[in-house]
Amino acid sequence: MKKLPIFVLLMTAVLMSISGCSITTQNKYTESMPETPNTMPPSIYVNGSVYTSTGEDLPIEVDPSIIQKVTHVIPGTELPSEEGTINFPLDNGSYALITDTEEYVVVSMDQEWQKFTKRGDYIPTPGKYLMNDARIPGGTWIYLRPDGTFVFMRDLATSYVPQGTYRISADELILDVSKEEYYIFKIEGDTLLLKDGTHIKELVPINSLFLRNEVEHLIEGAPMNFTEKEIRNGMSLIEETFSFPGATLKKLWYEEEKSTALRDSYMKYGRGKINGIRPENVLVILSEFTTDETEENSVLNPNSTYTDYQWILIRSSKDESWRIDDQGY
């Protein structure tokens, strides 16, 4: 069976620019991105899992009713983490989840169906992992970025927040901060179990369990003011830095008509009136989150659902990264 030149195509994807996220001082740390991220294997995210190309073409007929369109393409230096997302160049791509004698995904390329199998090398899905039974609910977490970097919030009360690059060894996730500082977790599906680490035992007990927090990202309609990538970069920034004690982020969405009205209000009555930011550099994202019964949060009501909560992101220019300038109702 022939193999498509997908790895050659990936070299083009590596040259795509990646917009990082700048963290505001209110979040206690500053972004540190690697200069040369590693190239990831050609992959697609389907039904909560990452599937990787085998390079094998399958001479099969696929039921048209199960064929889906690829939603968007991300750089080849990242692993996909949203439904229907791929990390290699493919125009008007389509795919299907096959569940007959085995479960796999086929992706249509050059009028052939190429087989993608579920990753079996324990690579965890990028995103935020919340510690179960943390001292402050929601106050201890790990954020794994698709580009292979991480942030580890060990406790909201600490001023030092480790960050660096992560790697996989067998069934272990290793967070490397420096030669002297590291943290090791056992990977069990979409959960992480702390096994060892430096400067850790006094803050996070060994065998602490971290569970992935699934956050729904929605972009309504066909945005005209921003590209999909610009919007998703903004959503990723909010998801990464969300840290209300006792609160769990559930959904982020962009609705252009409503977001534009909120932006105009910010420019006329809010900080936009005095900070000199141009309207095209203001992005408003809406969110939904829930709170538990914790008493650690003196601002939010316990056992409540907050919806249409606004996040106002700004940037100095189109080439700069987003930063959070304001939030609330």
TrEMBL record:
Keywords: Signal. InterPro entries: DUF4829. The keyword Signal applies. It holds the Pfam family DUF4829. Residues 1-24 form the signal peptide. Residues 241-328 form the DUF4829 domain. This is DUF4829 domain-containing protein. It comes from Proteiniclasticum ruminis. The lineage of its organism: Bacteria, Bacillati, Bacillota, Clostridia, Eubacteriales.
